[in-house]
Design a protein that fits this description.
The chain is mainly alpha-helical. The chain has 17 helices and no strands. Helices cover 78% and strands 0% of the residues. It is globular.
């Protein structure tokens, strides 16, 4: 069932869409089970509306009567434990005839090989490493977007919407007269993957980029992809290391092949394969990113307190090392990610807990560090002038400040027993702002600073 967000009951449809996304993350509950549960939920909502309740009241009562989702999940797991284990197989059995479907695997492998071929061809044809650095994301991400375009069966209108920004970025990155190795070229190369990742997100959500629930799904996917890609990289590194050791015993140096063939093929291909693995496992295995969030949130709070103490007692902020400011930005981005994945995994109907208070402490600590970082940046700009790096860093810190302030306000309201949905919407609706900012950095910043 595909709920719509248009019409007189748009808010109700949005709530059901969010509920459906939450249920789909329960292990052992298949898509067919979710459809059946949604039908029951809608029937209950209609019955309650007939008694005089409004949409929001009917939805909350109906969900309450559906029972605890964790308990429902455990019940499904007990009744369908054989299904749960069978779903862990990479190539699933088709229920119609019992044969295995290799179609999706073939598509994934073809796209993975295509990404590897594109990067390898570029490395052999392009002699300038800076040109290659600018374009490497453009060589890989279209294959990942192509997988989701095939998987979601995108319409040609959505496909054209994705193609145009890809082409514009390719023209901009290769037509601008960058100074080789200059600041604006490095800045453009760093921010281009952010813009392209947003375009991949449009393909992932099937063109439903205005849906808060679908944007949150893509945020969850991003976290899981990072984990799976890291695991593939670690496993691949061990395999290559063992292979190199065996070759060395035969007096064969594997390093030239590693740089010229193995890495250009394997790294882009692993990204596509990791995306496929996340897609294959998302309805079966519990998400890893939120679990890591639980572990690293208290550690990050301690780190922020220590960082704030060091910066507050460092004296003249203009003397703060530039590399330290870059590390501070990285830490603030980490905080935003921890907050996002914590919100993504939380039951929106559960009452506030101690961990929610710890999340608020995390955000407040990040705000304190961000305030010092902004002060240091403004001090350095006033004393040494504006540079491309300083302008971009200042803009990013201002975005992070707005994001964190809004999150802090909404978290305080939630701790005072206000609806959790407002905090979720703030996270998902701020994500496109980062993509727009990254696009502005790539397109506007280089000419403003003379492509230096």
């Amino acid at each position: 069932m595909a709920p719509t967000t248009a019409g007189p009951h748009a808010e109700l449809e949005a709530q059901i869409d969010q509920w459906r996304g939450y249920v789909r993350r329960r292990e052992a509950i298949s898509s067919a089970d979710v459809d059946e549960m949604e039908d029951h939920l809608r029937e209950r909502v209609e019955d309650l509306r007939a008694t005089g309740l409004d949409d929001e009241e009917a939805f909350l009562v109906a969900v309450k009567r559906m029972g605890d989702l964790d308990a429902v999940s455990r019940e499904f797991a007990r009744e369908h434990s054989d299904r749960l284990w069978k779903q862990l197989v990479l190539v699933r059995e088709e229920p119609a005839d019992g044969t295995r479907s290799w179609r999706e695997l073939a598509v994934v492998l073809a796209l993975a090989v295509g990404a590897g071929v594109a990067v390898r061809t570029a490395t052999s044809l392009v002699g300038d490493e800076w040109v290659l650095l600018r374009n490497v994301a453009l060589l890989v991400f279209p294959f990942l977007a192509g997988y989701f375009a095939w998987k979601r069966r995108l319409t040609w209108q959505v496909g054209l919407t994705l193609l145009v920004p890809f082409v514009v970025l390719a023209v901009v990155l290769n037509a601008y007269p960058f100074v080789p190795g200059g600041s604006t070229e490095i800045i453009a190369a760093i921010h281009t993957p952010v813009v392209l990742w947003a375009l991949v997100g449009v393909a992932y959500v099937g063109g439903r980029w205005r849906s808060d629930a679908r944007r949150m799904d893509f945020a969850r996917f991003t976290g899981e992809l990072a984990v799976y890609f890291t695991l593939l990289a670690l496993g691949g590194g061990v395999l290559v290391g063992l292979t190199a050791g065996v070759f060395s015993l035969a007096d064969v140096d594997l390093e030239p092949y590693l740089e010229d063939w193995i890495l250009p093929f394997c790294v882009p291909g692993a990204l596509v394969v990791a995306a496929w693995l996340v897609e294959a496992k998302q309805n079966v295995v519990e998400n890893i990113a939120p679990v890591l969030t639980r572990v690293f949130t208290p550690l990050t709070v301690v780190m922020l307190v220590a960082l704030f103490a060091v910066l507050a007692t460092s004296g003249n902020l203009a003397d703060v090392d530039r590399d330290l400011l870059i590390l501070m930005d990285a830490i603030l981005v980490l905080v935003v990610c921890l907050l996002l994945y914590s919100v993504s995994a939380r039951d929106p109907l559960a009452p506030p807990t101690l961990f929610d208070g710890l999340q608020l402490a995390l955000v407040v600590g990040a705000l304190a560090v961000d305030a010092i970082a902004l002060t240091a940046m403004l001090t350095r700009i006033a004393e040494f002038g504006v540079s491309p790096n300083k302008a971009v860093a200042l803009g990013l810190n201002l975005l992070l400040l707005v994001h964190l302030v809004g999150s802090a306000v909404l978290m305080v309201r939630f701790l005072r027993h206000r609806p959790f949905d407002a905090l979720v919407r703030w996270q998902t609706r701020f994500l496109p702002v980062y993509a727009v900012w990254a696009a502005a950095v790539v397109i506007v910043v280089p000419p403003v600073f003379g492509f230096v």
